[in-house]
Amino acid sequence: GEDVEQSLFLSVREGDSSVINCTYTDSSSTYLYWYKQEPGAGLQLLTYIFSNMDMKQDQRLTVLLNKKDKHLSLRIADTQTGDSAIYFCAYGGSQGNLIFGKGTKLSVKP
Amino acid sequence: KAGVTQTPRYLIKTRGQQVTLSCSPISGHRSVSWYQQTPGQGLQFLFEYFSETQRNKGNFPGRFSGRQFSNSRSEMNVSTLELGDSALYLCASSLVSGIGNEQFFGPGTRLTVL
User: What is the pLDDT of residues B17-38, one digit of tens each?
Assistant: First the structure.
């Protein structure tokens, strides 16, 4: 079936790098996504990567894709307290919907 | 350009009642998808509407239904509410239907069923 696994929690110190990982079961989706959800808010698309790419860099964000191992990661450089949120990995499912992981709660300590 | 808006933001209902949630997509977007978010199950796809037609449907009972109007605004209805329907209901709009189209999410409607 279609599934995405993520670790539930990550705690880092301000200024450090954060790396959030996810693995997915099967995807013919052209894109894989990272969304951010702050408390009381909806989902904000952070970045996405084409399935034929290995890496994408977007300012402080770096996405790495290992298609063979079905592993996706999001690296946030110089993590700030404002980056504290829940981060969701997602890909396009067979029904045209998005399949989401359960989310990784990132806590940034000053 | 205004983002996706959802009304109401918060709702409290009792078991057995029904509820209607509304979503206005970004201007020019014709696809609206609905998701349910709960702590236990995470984000689950309910259905997608495109050009007033339901394109795709997730694995939810028939108590969950929706529709889309000619201006692309969408409503979602839940009948005979159960305690387990308490959740954050998110809608997302995209320009067209299909995998790979960037989806923009609204802030959600928090439904509490007592």
Answer: 999 999 999 999 999 999 999 9
Alpha carbon distance B45, B48 (integer Å): 8
DSSP B25: P
**Residue A68: CB partners within 8 Å, gap ≥ 6?**
none
- pLDDT reported for residue A27: 63
DSSP, res A17:
-
Map tokens 């298609």 to a residue.
A67
Q: Is the pLDDT of residue B65 over 90?
A: yes
Contact yes or no for A42 and B108 at CB 8 A: yes
Alpha-carbon distance of B114 to A89, in angstroms, equals: 32
CB pairs A-B closer than 8 Å: 60
